[in-house]
Amino acid sequence: MAQRRLPAPRTLDPREAPSLRWGILGPGGIASAMVDALQQGTGQQVVAVGSRSADRAAAFAQRHGIAGSGDHDWLLAQDLDAIYVASPHSAHHEHALAAIDAGRAVLVEKAFTRNAGEAVEVLDAARDAGVAVAEAMWSRYLPGYDVVRQAVEQGVLGELRSVTADHGQLLWPDGPARLAEPALAGGALLDLGVYPIHLAAMLLPTVDAAHAVGALTPLGVDEQEVVTLTGPGGVLATCQASMSAKSPTAAVVAGTEARLELDGDFYRPTTIRLVAPDGEVLDAFEPQEREHGLRYEAVALARAVGAGALETPEVPWSETLRVMRILDDVRRQLGVVLPGE
């Protein structure tokens, strides 16, 4: 076969983005990882943290060397350029709207909201206020994902035929309590399944149909599911998620002339191999670093703010809405209805 090589990532240096003053809303585990990422290798400034519990915010601030802390209202009143919403899914809608109302750019942790209706309200508010908003689907901002995106667009794989990705983690029933709670928008899909579905959405220009099967917990959230997405010309994406079993968390993007193999965890900075149909490894991408990948999504928002844009090119609003509508369709097929929907 003709010589094939992987394209180089076009991702810009995170240290060269405009510097914003950040506030953290929701001092949980993902927020801790974000602060570490921003404090190591970017010019971003994390200056405040807010929580329902002022004591919890103060402990988080002390642990990370952040100057100010308080409750949610205190945070929104501070001199900030951007707010990272890291609260549970059930609160993303409320907290994003509050940050927009305060005139702050907003980076909203995935899944963006509980459903597409809430996402539309957030994005409409951002458009009306002229405020930049982005979904913190960190994988799509990584250099490796740009390699995958370009390889498909440039025909390195031939004609795209299939995408497969699994994301299984042993998080239930003995993991974080919020994952079991319908009131907190728990379940595997919004926490884990969103990763393979976002990968598929990035590569399929349209999704013509979605078919889902799964199993529910006694409280009615999804324990696990397999989702098949059909794209143009019959290309198929198989997306699997489980919160009750650990899987390899790998992905394969296959075309008529070659395939990409993304090692587990496929959604992190990881090895990506270009493989011929006979199994020969033609090329490989190795990330320069495997830590602090969360910073890429934050600096993408910073660049949007600096350019006067309302959305990022990596995850434009149309993509956030498309994925949210797919997630809504999957939950409808599984019979998962969250309180208040």
Architecture overview:
This is Gfo/Idh/MocA family oxidoreductase. Keywords: NAD, Oxidoreductase. It contains 9 helices and 14 strands. With 341 residues, the protein is α/β, with parallel strands linked by helices. The protein has 2 domains: 124 residues, Rossmann fold (3-Layer(aba) Sandwich), CATH 3.40.50.720; 174 residues, Dihydrodipicolinate Reductase, domain 2. A hairpin with a 3-residue loop joins β11 and β12. The N and C termini lie far apart (53 Å).
Quick structural overview:
By secondary structure, the protein is of the alpha/beta class.
- Shape, please? globular
The tally of helices reads: 9
Secondary-structure content class: alpha/beta
Tell me the strand percentage band. 15-25%
CATH architecture type of the largest domain? 2-Layer Sandwich
Describe the strand arrangement of the main beta sheet, using strand numbers. Answer: 8-9-10-7-11-12-13-14
Helix content: 25-40%
**Structure summary, number of beta strands:** 14
Main sheet, how many strands, which sense, barrel? 8 strands, mixed
Domain Gfo/Idh/MocA-like oxidoreductase N-terminal: 20-134
Organism: Agrococcus versicolor
InterPro entries: Gfo/Idh/MocA-like_OxRdtase_N, Gfo/Idh/MocA_domain, GFO_IDH_MocA-like_dom, NAD(P)-bd_dom_sf
Domain GFO/IDH/MocA-like oxidoreductase: 147-261
